[in-house]
Amino acid sequence: MRLVFLGPPGAGKGTQAAKLSTKLGVPRVSTGDILRRNVAEGTDLGKKAQSYMDSGALVPDDLVISMTERRLKEPDARQGFILDGFPRTLVQAQALAGLTPIDAAVNLFLEPEDLIKRNTGRRVCPNCEAVYHVLMNSPRKEGHCDRCGTPLTIRPDDRPDVVRARIETYDRQTAPLIKYYRDRGLLVEVYASGLIDEIFHRVLEALKI
Ligand code: AP5
Question: How would CATH label the architecture of 2-25+77-207?
Answer without folding.
Answer: 3-Layer(aba) Sandwich (3.40)
